[in-house]
């Protein structure tokens, strides 16, 4: 459970009372109570107030806020205030200021403004966390710790350079080994002294953030950077845990969910609860949001996670900050719950008067009244979540299909110069996700550490980099009867981005039963097509394909589909290799979405995996959570019109209307049904 003190889906958001006169605080809290809010995320950006100079700390204001929350039976998700350092610190210790990708030393300003390897930043952020933990360890309002805020950073300073060299010494032991791994014989890069190595940015190896002359060094810097930022988090985490070992600690992942610079699977190992910030635009496809939820659920093998931030209405930082239409905030909140979240929080509870976020949506508007549409929608949801109580808590989504997602592979694929700039890792993963999502088949998003034995089908999109030994895990999975679905541009390199010279797809060659001789990159205006042969899947069909067409020699694999054009016409485009009791599928090109959907369904049928809903109507989302005693099926209507779903003859209990239902049901526009059934 996220928290025993509050056995319900926790509901609240960021609140910055330090921006307001104290006389307004009571009224704010009354409005929170009216909205059914039970948690305020406080102290997020108040370092400069908490520590006006190097030796002075001032927490009186925070004491009052904590007391006021406790007086009303509310709780604090207590942040550590370290996401923006104070101006005095930058003036006295310029080393805390980071150096950007262009090599410019920053001056004081903005937030996320600290070098992650700065000893001064590390010392004072750790100390802040410790002081807060000591002060509030027994406070009744303390519910959770929230370290920093949405870690973002980028630094190429001399401190980082020195730390990077130490990190490299630990990783490689010798320069000889580093030179080998980085392939430095290329372009006269042989290093004879560790001091010769500088961080890879636009002043050294890069043309742009994604284009590098040396993928080896860039990959290592990406790893080093993610670990350096994580080390900042860990300094605070350990300081807090030393004082309050039983209070859970989190931080909020960036709104992108798939935030490239930080390897969130590595981070999740050090978080008690995973939390992320969900900021879709008005036109973000529903499946993109769902994918990110499933990624968050995958962070800790299916454990409940939290939405730390979503806007009740609009953002301020998009080019066009559209309002969330009536019902959308509620719908997206239930989407999170449907996919495994046990906490729904907002940014923000009260709109700022100044600064760049003064037009960002909030539960309480500039006119602090209960009369606004947004307040009323928030309050209605607050009442519903109260009424749901603890019934959904800790229930789990269950999937038999998994899609692999790997940050290091992502970095490597996109650092690769060639075969095509069109190849974007997250897009590829999303395509597979969409195919299952649109057919109401649940999937888990997994890391390379996840145990595969719980799945029937594993999809590894663009597994360009195969981490040391991962091929053995895949082989064991297929041998035992699993279906693996691999794609073009797989098995090409090892963890140092060195090509495996035993023929593509390298260490996956015997598992997939193919040798890939050449990779043809198609211009965006060009395409090919592939035809499935009737003997294989029981139907004959032609699909377009583009971006990459590989020239494949099936070895032990059989050909399932062939290309229709070009000099590789008639050559294998899709193959299946029987391996042990399972099958390894290889799709050597980028087919149209219909193909991915069709093959997904064929494989699921063979494994007896049934969709959660037969109705293929676009716009209806279905997800299921299981507790020990019950199954909860969520039906979410993302459409602007009524949808009809068929629940079948047996009665189920609908949790929001609190009544038994069966047969055909209307789900209103943006409406939600949560149907509960006992597990027999
Ligand atoms: C991020 C930050 C918040 C706030 C919101 C605005 O998620 O964590 O502090 O700036 O964006 O959308
Ligand atoms: Zn730095």
Any idea of the CATH topology of the largest domain?
Answer: TIM Barrel
- Overall geometry comes to globular
Which ligands are bound?
alpha-D-galactopyranose, zinc ion
Number of strand elements: 29
Task: Sketch the major β-sheet.
Answer: 11 strands, mixed
Percent helix, as a range, is: 25-40%
What is the CATH domain class of the largest domain? Alpha Beta
Number of domains: 3
Structural class: alpha/beta
Number of helices: 18
Into which percentage range does the β-strand content fall?
15-25%
Under the CATH scheme, the architecture of the largest domain is Alpha-Beta Barrel
Mean pLDDT: 97
Given as residue ranges, the uncertain stretches (5+ residues, pLDDT < 50) are: none
Output the radius of gyration. 26 Å
What does the oligomeric state look like here? single chain
Q: In angstroms, what separates the terminal alpha carbons?
A: 24 Å
CATH superfamily of the largest domain: Glycosidases
Which keywords apply here?
680 residues; TIM Barrel; Rossmann fold; Immunoglobulin-like; 3 domains; 11-stranded mixed beta sheet; 9-stranded parallel beta sheet; 18 helices; 30% helix; binds alpha-D-galactopyranose; binds zinc ion
Describe the structure.
It is a single chain. The strands form five sheets. Strands 12, 13, 14, 15, 16, 17, 18, 19, 20, 21 and 22 form an eleven-stranded mixed beta sheet that branches. The protein has a nine-stranded parallel beta sheet with strand order 7-4-3-2-1-11-10-9-8, with helices on one face. Strand 14, helix 15 (470-479) and strand 15 (483-487) form a beta-alpha-beta unit. By secondary structure, the protein is an alpha/beta fold. It folds into three domains: 10-85 and 116-153 and 245-393, TIM Barrel (Alpha-Beta Barrel); 401-606, Class I glutamine amidotransferase (GATase) domain (Rossmann fold); 620-678, Sandwich (Immunoglobulin-like), CATH 2.60.40. The radius of gyration is 26 Å and the shape is globular. Helix 8 (215-243) packs antiparallel against helix 13 (407-415) and helix 14 (425-437) crosses helix 18 (593-606). The protein contains 18 helices and 29 strands. Helices cover 30% and strands 21% of the residues. The structure holds alpha-D-galactopyranose and zinc ion. The site of zinc ion (ZN) has 7 residues, from helix 6.
């Amino acid at each position: 459970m996220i928290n025993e003190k509050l056995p319900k889906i926790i509901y609240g958001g960021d609140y910055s009372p330090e921006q307001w006169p104290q006389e307004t605080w009571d009224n704010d809290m009354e409005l929170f109570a009216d909205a059914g809010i039970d948690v305020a995320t406080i102290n997020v950006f108040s370092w400069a107030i908490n520590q006006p100079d190097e030796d002075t700390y001032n927490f009186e204001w925070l004491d009052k806020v904590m007391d006021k929350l406790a007086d009303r039976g509310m709780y604090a998700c207590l942040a550590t205030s370290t996401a923006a350092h104070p101006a005095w610190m930058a003036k006295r210790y310029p080393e805390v200021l980071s150096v950007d990708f262009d090599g410019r030393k920053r001056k004081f300003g903005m937030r996320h403004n600290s070098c992650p390897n700065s000893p001064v930043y590390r010392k004072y952020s750790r100390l802040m966390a410790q002081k807060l933990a000591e002060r509030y360890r027994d406070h009744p309002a303390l519910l959770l710790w929230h370290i920093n805020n949405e870690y973002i950073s980028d630094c190429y300073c001399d401190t980082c350079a020195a730390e990077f060299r130490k990190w490299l010494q630990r990783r490689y032991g010798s320069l000889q080994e580093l030179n080998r791994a980085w392939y430095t014989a290329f372009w006269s890069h042989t290093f004879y002294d560790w001091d010769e190595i500088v961080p890879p940015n636009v002043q050294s190896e890069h043309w742009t953030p994604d284009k590098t002359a040396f993928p080896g060094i860039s990959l290592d810097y990406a790893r080093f950077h993610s670990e350096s930022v994580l080390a900042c988090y860990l300094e605070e985490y350990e300081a807090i845990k030393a004082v309050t070992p039983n209070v859970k600690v989190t931080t909020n992942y960036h709104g992108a969910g798939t935030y490239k610079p930080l390897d969130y699977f590595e981070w999740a190992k050090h978080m008690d609860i995973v939390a992320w910030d969900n900021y879709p635009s008005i036109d973000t496809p529903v499946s993109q949001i769902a994918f990110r939820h499933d990624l968050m659920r995958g962070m800790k093998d299916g454990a409940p996670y939290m939405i730390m931030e979503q806007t009740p209405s609009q953002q301020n930082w998009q080019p066009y900050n559209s309002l969330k239409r009536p019902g959308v905030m509620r719908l997206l909140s239930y989407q999170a719950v449907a996919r495994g979240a046990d906490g729904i929080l907002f940014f923000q509870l009260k709109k700022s008067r100044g600064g760049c976020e003064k037009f960002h949506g909030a539960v309480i508007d500039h006119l602090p009244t209960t009369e606004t549409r947004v307040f009323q929608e928030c309050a209605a949801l607050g009442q519903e979540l109260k009424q749901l109580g603890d019934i959904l808590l800790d229930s789990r989504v269950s999937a038999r299909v998994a899609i692999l997602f790997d940050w290091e592979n992502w970095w490597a694929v996109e650092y690769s110069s060639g075969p095509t700039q069109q190849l974007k890792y997250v897009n590829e993963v999303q395509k597979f996700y969409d195919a299952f999502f649109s057919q109401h088949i649940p999937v888990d998003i997994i890391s390379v550490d996840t145990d595969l034995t719980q799945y029937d089908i594993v999809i590894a999109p663009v597994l360009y980099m195969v981490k040391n030994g991962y091929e053995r895990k895949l082989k064991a999975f297929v041998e035992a009867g699993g279906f693996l679905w691999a794609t073009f541009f797989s098995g090409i390199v090892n963890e140092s981005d060195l090509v495996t010279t035993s023929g593509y797809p390298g260490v996956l060659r015997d598992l997939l039963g193919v040798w890939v001789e050449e990779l043809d990159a198609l211009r965006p205006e060009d395409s090919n097509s592939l035809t499935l042969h009737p003997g294989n899947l029981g139907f004959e069909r032609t699909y377009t394909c583009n971006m990459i067409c590989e020239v494949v020699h099936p070895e032990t694999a059989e050909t399932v589909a062939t290309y229709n054009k070009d000099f590789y016409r008639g050559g294998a485009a899709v193959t299946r290799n029987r391996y042990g009791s399972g099958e390894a599928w290889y799709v050597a090109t980028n087919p149209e979405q219909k193909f991915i959907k069709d093959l997904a369904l064929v494989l699921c049928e063979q494994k007896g995996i049934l969709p959660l809903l037969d109705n293929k109507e676009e716009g209806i989302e279905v997800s299921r959570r299981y507790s020990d005693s019950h199954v909860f099926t969520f039906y979410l209507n993302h459409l602007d019109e009524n949808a009809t779903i068929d629940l079948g003859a047996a009665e189920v209990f609908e949790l929001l209307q609190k009544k038994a239902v069966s047969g055909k049901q209307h789900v209103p526009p943006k409406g939600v049904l949560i149907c509960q059934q006992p597990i027999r």
